[in-house]
Amino acid sequence: MEARMKSARDEMDIIDAYQTVGTYRGAAALCGTTHKTVKRVVTRQARGQVGRRATPPPKAAAVARLIEERVRQTDGRISAKRLLPVAQAAGYTGALRSLQRTVKEAKAAWKLSRRSYRPWLPIPGEHLVIDWASEGGWEIFCAVLAWSRVRFVRFARDQRRETTLRLLGECFEALGGVPAVVLTDRMACLRAGIVANVVVPHPEYVQFAARCGFRPDFCEGADPESKGVVEALAGYAQRDLLAPALMTGGWADLVSANAAAIVWCAEVNGRMHSEIAAVPEERLVIERDVLRPLPSLQPALPRGATRKVDRLGMVRFGSGRYAVAHELVGKLVEVMTEAEAVVVRFQDAEVARHGAVAPGEVALGCFADGARRPARGVRPRTAAEVAFLGLGAVAEAFLRAAAAAGTLRLEAELAQIATFEAAWGRPALVRALERALRFRRFKAADVRGILGAGAGVPTPAAAGTQLLLGLPPVPERELSAYALADVGVES
Asked: Could you say which of 314, 341, 367 is where a domain stops?
């Protein structure tokens, strides 16, 4: 701090005052500083040193690569105390406190680069996100229709499968329709198991989904960010609905609690939503028809406004959000309108151009990544899963189809199917899996039956396909052999 406070002129005055009075305290009184500062300046001048001594690199710099690698491997969860023995074995000689500072800096750098985010683009009538929350002895069922942001909250005494499906059906009735996909976390009441990171929904949930006409979907494990819209609703309901009621004694029974929840939902759905700049109840009228027209009246867009790029790589302008390059995160950019376009400029250079969007909409433009999808890869963990998935792509397709059908005891079935390779061989087992997948037979007994039938099983084909036959070869003659002169006929 002292080197930044004293300029070269100040140090010259201190040295001159010391040479005049001959004491540190006397020079300090003349220059308006402390005697310790005078001593440091005079000592540096005697050594011929200009300015403050350069700070040596931290002792942890020798193991910086090791720290960065361990932070990356543990996704930023390792502590400096746990890392200290490993660093000492690699040659670190400093104290724990110095290592803690370096680990903290490495974690901060890792957090900035570990994952990039873009806002979710919901489609009308596509996703309903549901979740459970617990507070004060009450179980809170929360659901959000992603595009219109209509919120549905009900109370229950438990989180059983029957309760969840009943409240989900009540939510459909309140919305006036069924979305295409219901997204949940990996709640135990709706899944029968997890095989190689593929969630197997419970058969009752599969039947309920088939009857209602939606597709069940599950988030990645331990990833609440993938359903943050309903996580926010759960916290909102706890703070704004449940907490005030508990302060006044709570509700007498479940009926009165749900009556209060209905009133609360009507209130919040009838208010302007801060994220979409619209009333969810009004957008629900549009979403019921599965239409997505732009609003006829768009808000007036200002010109030349300064905006800061958020961590998602977006700037907010006229209640819409526009994408820019991730390199500009945290920078100030200028946003303006030109005809029907929104132009983003940085340091007098155009960095993005988008068409104007309605309030609450997102424009990605050239920054959209069509291949960017939630990756729920198949990751075998047990020896049986590794052996089965080693059969190739047909094994992965068989696993996903069996999981989507709600097959019970799927782990044991796959382990038994993998043992068939020793008796029938891999080519025959692969062909049997392809046939079982075609006719949706996912039990080990079904695959064994196909293998036992051999190659004599019929292969149905669609009507009207061309029948290809192998005909015997015939001799070919030139066209001149059929001339009339060769057969004695005058032309």
From this structure: 367
188 and 280, same domain (yes or no) = yes
Q: Is the dihedral of CA 445, 448, 449, 450 positive or negative?
A: positive
What CATH number should be reported for the domain holding residue 225? 3.30.420.10
Q: Which residues pair with 273 in a beta bridge?
A: 278
Is the separation of the CB atoms in 142 and 130 below 8 Å? yes
pLDDT digits (tens, 9 = 90+) for 331-352: 999 998 776 788 899 988 889 9
Positions of the chain with pLDDT lower than 50, given as ranges: 1-4, 292-302
Tokens of 455: 């190659």
Range of the domain at 14: 2-47
Q: Which residue has the tokens 């957090």?
A: 111
> Is the entire prediction scored with pTM above 0.85?
no
| 485 lies in some domain | no
| Number of residues that make up the chain | 491
Tell which residue, 296, 324, 320, has the closest CA to residue 309: 324
H or E, element range at 262: helix 254-269
Residue 294: per-residue pLDDT? 35
Domain count for the chain, please give it.
5
